[in-house]
Amino acid sequence: MKPIVPFEPIVTETIPTGDNWIAQVKWDGTRILTYHEFGETKLFNRKLNERTKQYPELIDTTAYFSADSFILDGELIALKEGKPSFYEVMRRDRLKSVGVNGGMLEQVPITYMVFDIIQLDGELLTGHSLAERQELLKKYFIPNEHVQLVESFHDKEGLLQACLSNDLEGVVFKDLTSSYSIGGKDKRWLKRKKQHDLIAVIGGVTYKNGVANSLHLGLYDQTDHLVYIGSVGNGKLTNKDWAELTKILKTIETGNCPFASMTNKGNMVWLKPLLTVKVSFLEWIENHTLRHPIIEAFVTADPLECRMEN
After folding, report:
1. Separation between Cα atoms, residue 74 and residue 278, nearest integer Å
2. Are 126 and 71 in contact (CB under 8 A)?
3. What is the H or E stretch that residue 115 is in?
4. 3 state SS of 147
5. Are the CB atoms for 159 and 150 separated by under 8 Å?
6. How many angstroms separate the Cα of 276 from the Cα of each of 150, 217, 244, 262, 288?
């Protein structure tokens, strides 16, 4: 079987209406497709990189699926304090060899949350509706400790509120009539993710071709030291906005690093900690840095009031 690029949802701010839509928990992990044929099992991620060695719990497919050949689509997760943690699953994903894993298999147990089937016993199912594919999944699927079937809900608003209340990543809305588009990304699958936001101090910048393209952010701790929390280059800024911002940043460059316990990384240029920016992000990850920060707006705030949470 040749690895394929999976079907992807697009971002939405609204909840779709109609009985043909269902909602599923958006599990915060890594997308993994399982390929099984002629007694051999291989795992690949969305970028077509093989991950078979990293997750040996999924090799014996007879423990969770009763068919001779198939391709399953799902999200592989690892829990930390009872909630999916992207950082934890990446600890497993980075393993080069199961034989030399430092006990990682026991330290970071995984669960494969299966939500679709693409091929079954030699038949490609991409032209079948999601409703038909779900029925086939239920027929052949065998849940166990490491493999579970993602549940579908018709109460879309209820599931979204439950996910937000329990600090889960969000919800995916899917049209039950939708076929599976290999390498596709369209509005038949929609995702609504939770977001956090904060106001941070800009302590550094990286330029590309003379124009700012990444800001380096910090928050003050209880001892008034500016602590680095991550870098951001994505957001709602136009090329013109970046050009105008560059002019401002050039006036506050300094040779002194404003961050505590940090040395210059790459082409970072230090700035006097005078400007603040509002960013949204998915979660705090290890070393207290932001995962997927996005620039929302530049704000007028006292930098010293931009503080780490206790």
Report:
1. 33
2. no
3. strand 110-120
4. strand
5. no
6. 41, 9, 16, 20, 19
Are 29 and 86 contacting, i.e. CB atoms less than 8 angstroms apart?
Answer: yes
CATH for the stretch 196-305: 2.40.50.140
CB atoms inside a 10 Å sphere around CB 304: 11
| Closest among 269, 292, 278 to 201, alpha carbons compared | 278
Residue 224 pLDDT exceeds 70: yes
Amino acid at 194: K
Domain 8-193 has CATH 2.60.40.10: no
pLDDT in tens, 78-128: 998 888 988 788 888 877 765 556 678 888 899 999 999 999 999 999 999
Write down the domain spans for the chain: 8-193, 196-305
pLDDT for position 19: 95
- Paired residues of 207 in beta bridges: 212
- Tokens 């399953």 locate to 72
